[in-house]
Each structure stands twice: as C-alpha cells, then as structure tokens.
Write a structure and sequence with these properties.
The structure holds 2 protein chains of 2 kinds. Chain A contains 11 helices and 14 strands. By secondary structure, chain A is of the alpha/beta class. Chain A folds into 2 domains: 220 residues, Rossmann fold; 70 residues, Alpha-Beta Plaits. Chain A has a 6-stranded mixed beta sheet, with helices on both faces. In chain A, strands 2-1-4-5 form a 4-stranded antiparallel beta sheet. In chain A, strands 12-13-11-14 form a 4-stranded antiparallel beta sheet, with helices on one face. In chain A, helix 3 crosses helix 4. The longest helix of chain A is centred in the middle third of the chain and has 15 residues. The radius of gyration of chain A is 25 Å and the shape is elongated. Chain B is mainly alpha-helical. In chain B, helix 7 runs parallel beside helix 12. Chain B is globular and about 75 Å long. The chains are: A alpha/beta, B mainly alpha. Chains A and B meet through helix 2 and helix 3 of A and helix 1, helix 5 and helix 12 of B.
Chain lengths: 310, 254
C-alpha cells in the first residue's frame, strides 16, 4: 500500500534521510519512530508529494509519487506536523473547502461527507465556531477530519498527539484506532508508549537511516536475551542475596533501594522465568514476599538500545 | 482544473480579515477625492470659457476628467496592490498551511491561478467603484464610452501585471512586510524605468519598451494597440511562469 524504495533526501548539503526503504501493507497501522530531527517529517512530506526526493521513489496506493502525484494525493489523507489550519474559517466552512478541493463537488455528497466527518471526529458542538477559537484538542480533530473527509485508503499522520494534554491524547489515539480497521495508517511519533499502544509494527529511524523494522514483540524478544525480575522482600539483605543467588538460572541480583529498614527491592537477571523458585525459597527461609513481577522491556529501552548501539 | 475552490477560499480569506476592506476603502477615498478635484476644475473651466469665442482647446470631459482620473487610479493601484498580494504565499508559508494546500490533490497551476484570480477580483471590485463615478457625470456631459471602456481594460491589464509581480515576490519570502516593500519597489521601478530613455542612449529603447507606464499611456487616449495588449499579457505570463518555477524548486530544495 505504501512502499518506499531507497528514498534519499538532501537539503542543500545536509543529508536528511538516506536509503530509506520499507513496506506498509494494506490495513496495517505502522509507526515511524525516531528522535527529533531523525527525518520522520521528511519521509512523510515525500510520501505526500510535498517534497521531491533527491533519489529513490515511493509507491502509494499503487501510484508512483514522481509519476503520478495527483493520484497519490487523492488517495492520501495527511495530517501535517503542527497541524496547520486555515484558522479564520469556521469548522464547517473549512471542511467544505477541503471537500471541494478534494473533488467532492455535488452538494448532497458534500453535506453527507462533512456531516460524517464531523460525527466521526466529534466536532458537532463546534462546527460553526471559527477554528482559531478552538482548543488544541479540537483543532487536532479538525486536522484529522480534513484528512479523512474523502475517505482515503491511506492516512499519513505526522505526530498526531504532539502538544495535547493526556485526556486529549487518549481521545485522539482512540480516534485513530477507530479509523484503523478500514484504512492503512502510517504515523510518526517520538513518544514511544503511544506507538506501542496504537501500532502493530514500528519502523525505527535515527539520523536519517532505518535501524529496525519489526513488530513490538519481536523487537522486545530480540533485544532482551534475558529475563529481568523485580523483587521486593522483607528480610536481611545479605541473606536474601545469598539465598536467591543460589537458585539455578539466576545470573545476578542487585539491590536497587531500601524502603524501610528491612524492606528492600532487588533487580534480578535470570536466564529464564524463575519466579516460582524464588517465591518458594523466600517463604521457606522465612522472609516476607511483598512484590514480584517480570519487567517488560519498554519501547524506551528498545529504542535507546537500538540508537546507542551504533 | 480545480481553480475555483482555491479562488473561493482566497476570496473568503480576503473578506474575513479587514485587509481587503481597508485597501478598498483607502483606494476609493483617494480616487473619490481626485474625481472631485478633477470634475470641480472641469466645471469652473467650462463656465469660464462658455462665453468665449476661442474655446479652451481641450474642453472635453474625456480629456479633462476621465484621462487624468485613470492615470491617478493607475498610480494609486501601484501603491495599494502590494498590500493585496503580500499575503498570498508569504502567509501560507509562515503559518505552515502551505503544506496542506500543496498536499491536496491540486496542481501547482490551480493554486497559482486561484490566488491570482482572487486578487484580480478584489482589484476589479476596488476599481469598479471609482470607474462608476464617471457615469454620475453622464447627466451633464457626454463621455466617449468606448474610450472609458478602453481605459478600464488598460487598468485591468496593468493591475494584472502588478499582481503577477506581487505574487512572485510573495512566493519568495515568509515575511509579508518584506514582500509588500519589494513588490512596491519593483513595480515602481518598472513604472519609471522609461525615464532614463531621455538620458542614456544605448539601452534607451529597451528601457522604454519594458516600462509598464509607457504601455499604459495609450489606453486612456482611446488607442487600443495590440502591442500594448501583448506586452501586458507577456509580463503576466512571464512572472506567473517564474512563480510556478519557484514553487516547483521549493519542492526540491525543501
């Protein structure tokens, strides 16, 4: 559905992206993840034909971005970074203009599409207000409404939740998830939990190069190699360390912090899941087991590992 | 071709903000004053010479009211048109909305001509008002209507050229003020460039030819010269072509 082939882009002499290739299948939600200035926006702008790549090309919905930009733009709904809007217009005036520009001319069609977009994005309360008077969350919804108004098969969203408060962020995320069933969505973000919540697959990019493309589970297991267990025990530090260190499979145990005099938390690295053995040992030795869980590797960890490896 | 939705959007933007109203108002205040001064002078002169056996040699309303009126309209539009063209691309670039516009399924030329025609429409509205003043005098004097129409065509051609210069400069900068100043300077330079023809000899013919003013002169006289028409249309298309090239180059340079 969206396929990038060796995209390279220079701004003057500065290299923005280099040899970027990836494939987003139909109906997938894929996240483009990277620190600021990694080249995310450049990729998005190339895919929407706002910029021309220095070399390489991309196929969007079956059309080449260099040969058939008009058809590409017809099949893409785009939410640019920072969500620029014609703020002096009211919401319905603006959506009306977007309809006409996207080739929906018939009055009945227009009314149908606009009311559908307004309903889907929850804009009915503010549809007659000028956009500059709206809160940031509503503006973001207007931005999404203009992207989906002609029901495009591909949605490209550049940092859709940046600058929103937590509640608005959750709302926007749900909105995106709702569109996911019918469409291919390609979104960028530097907020890692967001990507893990919304996306099925992530493309990690750093300094203009792709460093990993995979599902989040695969990335986690690939990088982990070992199980990390968090443990909170009521008992003497030295004894606890000794007892647990004897368990088969435990590589190391490290004291993280002590909360009260006798309650301490530890970080255990083991070859496999040894929680059962640990709890048995603790109970037989008369310590108090307060808490124990496997530490999930967060996207932050994956990301840092990947970007600092090179 | 999807020029129409862009044209509608630009017109709406003009009239949502006070800019278009203010420009039209100021333009009409100045033209109204000039019209008053010219017709008052004309009436005094015609009374003074009404009994004279040697009538004043140019005692025609076309020569004494309409022609200077159109000259003044042309100069006033030179001053106010940069204020209409300055925002067309500069504002979109600064606010980032250009990214929306250029990722919609539109051709660059649709966007350009939409903006051009919107600005030209405001210019037509702006100039039709003082143009209609002349018809107030119809009750007392007889104008040569063909000449009036010819002069109006001249104004439109001249305005179109100023607008195409203005849009080019607006596409080059993010600052509206800079855009307005450079547009004004460039237009003025093209207006007066013919003056050097009396001093220098080597390029005088060339400077004479590219002067926007020299080609305008004929219209209020009632002369419709196809050379002037072709000149103005070429200026419009030349600057439009440059603007479209600039828009493409921004895609490559980012």
């Amino acid at each position: 559905m969206v396929e990038a082939k060796n995209l390279t882009k220079y701004y003057g002499k500065t290299k923005a992206i280099e040899n970027v290739s990836f494939l987003v299948e139909k109906g997938e939600i894929v996240g483009l993840l990277g620190p600021n200035a990694a080249g995310k926006t450049t990729i998005m702008r190339i895919l929407t034909c706002f910029l021309t790549p220095t070399s390489g090309t991309a196929i969007v919905n079956g059309y080449d971005i260099l040969e058939n930009p008009f058809e590409v733009q017809k099949s893409v709904g785009y939410l640019p970074e920072k969500n620029p809007l014609y703020e002096e217009f009211t919401v319905s005036e603006f959506l009306n203009f977007v309809c006409e520009i996207k080739g929906i001319i018939k009055k009945q069609d227009k009314i149908k599409r606009i009311s559908k977009a307004i309903e889907e994005c929850g804009l009915s309360e503010v549809k007659n207000k000028s956009i500059y008077k709206l809160s940031k969350g509503y503006k973001q919804r207007v931005g999404i409404a203009q992207a989906i108004i002609n029901d495009p098969p591909v949605l490209i969203l550049d940092e859709p939740t940046i600058g929103l408060d937590p509640k608005q962020t959750i709302e926007t995320r749900n909105l995106i998830k709702n569109f996911a069933r019918k469409r291919t969505i390609f979104l960028s973000s530097h907020i890692l939990p967001e990507v893990s919540m919304v996306c099925e697959r992530v493309i990690i990019i750093n300094e203009g190069k792709i460093i990993a493309v995979d599902t989040i589970e695969n990335l986690t297991s690939r990088l982990k190699g070992a199980t990390e267990i968090y443990l909170e025990v009521d008992g003497d530090v030295e004894k606890v360390e000794k007892v647990i260190g004897e368990i088969e499979g435990v590589k190391s145990i490290k004291l993280i912090s002590s909360k009260k005099e006798k309650v301490n938390s530890y970080n255990i690295i083991a070859e496999k899941d040894v929680r059962k053995e640990i709890s048995e040992k603790i109970l037989t030795n008369g310590f108090g087991l307060l808490s124990m869980r496997i530490k999930e590797m967060s996207l932050e960890d994956i990301f840092l590992k990947l970007t600092t490896k090179e | 071709m999807r020029v129409l939705p862009v044209l509608k959007k630009e017109l709406k933007s003009y009239f949502i903000s006070p800019v278009a109203y203010v420009v039209i108002l100021i333009f009409n205040l100045i033209c109204g004053f000039i019209f008053y001064a010219l017709s008052a002078y004309y009436s005094i002169i015609s009374i003074r010479y009404s009994g004279s056996p040697y009538p004043y040699f140019t005692l025609s309303p076309n020569e004494m009211v309409a022609r200077p009126m159109f000259h003044n309209m042309a100069i006033t539009s030179l001053f106010v048109l940069p204020l209409l063209t300055m925002r067309l691309f500069s504002e979109e670039r600064r606010l980032g909305t250009i990214e929306l516009l250029f990722t919609y399924p539109l051709k660059d030329s649709d966007i350009y001509w939409g903006k051009f025609l919107a600005c030209l429409s405001v210019f037509v509205i702006m100039t039709l008002i003082p143009f209609s003043y002349l018809f107030i005098l119809e009750k007392w004097v007889n104008f040569d209507k063909g000449v009036l129409l010819n002069s109006y065509i001249g104004i439109l051609l001249l305005g179109g050229s100023f607008i195409s210069i203005g849009i080019l400069i607006s596409s080059l900068t993010e600052s509206q003020i800079v855009s307005a100043i450079i547009t004004f300077g460039t237009s003025l330079l093209f207006w007066i460039i013919g003056w050097v023809s009396e001093i220098s000899t080597k390029y005088s013919k060339f400077f004479d030819f590219i002067s926007l003013y020299n080609h305008y002169e004929n219209f209020p006289k009632g002369i419709f010269d196809t050379r002037d028409l072709v000149f103005y249309l070429s200026v419009c298309f030349f600057f439009s072509f440059l603007t479209l090239r600039i828009l493409v180059s921004k895609k490559y340079r980012g």
